[in-house]
Structure formats: structure tokens, C-alpha cells
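Request:
You are asked to prepare a plain-text protein record giving the amino acid sequence and the C-alpha cells, at your earliest convenience.
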Amino acid sequence: MTTLDDSELVFDKDGVRLTVEDAVATVTLTNPAKRNAQSPALWRALTEAGRSLPGSVRVVVLRGEGKSFSAGLDRQAFTPEGFDGEPSFLEMARGSDEDLDALIAEYQEAFTWWRRSDLVSIAAVQGHAIGAGFQLALACDLRVVAEDVQFAMRETSLGLVPDLTGTHPLVSLVGYARALEICATGRFVHAEEAERIGLANLSVPAEELDAAVRDLSAALLAAPRDAVNETKALLQGASGRSYEEQRTAERAAQSRRLRDLAGLGD
């Protein structure tokens, strides 16, 4: 994992730090005292992190300081006073449908950029990844987890639904029935099960998490960038295409790659 000693600090604010070392960016949640609980300010900082990435970045690692990746939404959001300068959830509920939709869409932006076709994102997850924390891990392309990881989607227990883009990747990874059971019960999913059902690409002892993510990052960087990006785009679109449409997409992508390799690209 990159450290502040060998990487460039891009910004550090509102519980989010962005550093860059060569082709790898690291986004770190930096409020371990509150188990990296999330707030609108943190979401805006995550959105800014995505917009601040240099063009040289190919891999983005997302991690949380301390014992937990992210324990989810800061419960202060549910109090009448909410956060300073922010509408509380109670105030939001009194707004128009249009205003409420726009505000949630703004919050979702923090979770959408991780699957950009020009990047591969890796969530390094230890300890609790609850609710919004679970959804943030799901926002990434890949997840490497420590053996103490505890995923849970607790929104239903609060009378809410998961609305931070987590439902689509969850169903894609584990299927509808398993996703429904996980969300509706709010139960914990631990490391062994997470790896077995496809939530985690790899499970390692906590002390090996950083090294495992470094190794995976290096492996992703070993292949040419354009080939990785084209492959990612093919795989991202596969579920929405028929078999024949996917064959066509493969031929088109390979034609581009061959022309580029031959120096005949646009």
C-alpha cells in the first residue's frame, strides 16, 4: 500500500485523503475514531477524489483507517439537528419529491465513479463494512477482505432501503435470492462466506491485507492499459447483451486492439 512517505498528497479533508504514487491512487477514509462513519461532507469529498485523479492513474485503492472499513452512515443524520450546514434526514423528508431525488442523486455520485472504464478499483476491507460502508465496498470493481470482515446491509432495520448504488452490484455478484436475503435480514456476511459467494475476490489475515492489495495492484498494472480497459468494458456490458451481441462486441474490441498494435489506429 502506498504511504504518505512515498506518494503525493492530493487532498485531505472531511474524512477523506487522496494520495497518488505513479499509476496507483489511494483513497483513505480517515476517521477511525468513528469507525469511518459516513456523512454528506464525506460523500462530497469522495466525489472530488474521483474528479481529482491524474490521467496517469490506472488503479484506485479504497481503504479505511483503523479497525473498521466503514460502519455506515453517521447516526447524527437521523437527529433533528443533523450535521452543521446540512439538511437532516427529517428535513429532507419534508421536501418535494424532486428535491429529495436530486439530493440522493448528489450523494450517489460518491459511489458511481469507481467503475469508470479507464480504472480498476480495489476495496481493501477490514472489520465492519455496514450499510453505506457495504455499499461503498460494492462500488469498487474488486474487493480484498481481511478475515475479520463483517459485511451487513442494515438499511431495512432502519425502515430504509439501500440507495447508494449497492443493489445492482450486489445482485450481479451473488444473485437475486441471496441479495434479497442479505438485505432483508441485515445479517452479517463474514470473510469465508464473502469469498465463497463472490462478494470478495480474496480473503487474507488482517496483517496481510495491505500486501495482498499491493500484489493485486501490481498484477493489474502488468498488462497494457488499453487492453485492460477494453476488457473491462466488454465484461461490464456483457449482462445487458445477448450472446450474439457479445460476440459482436468482442470482434469490434479486438479489431481496435489489433489496429492499435499494428500502428493503424485513429
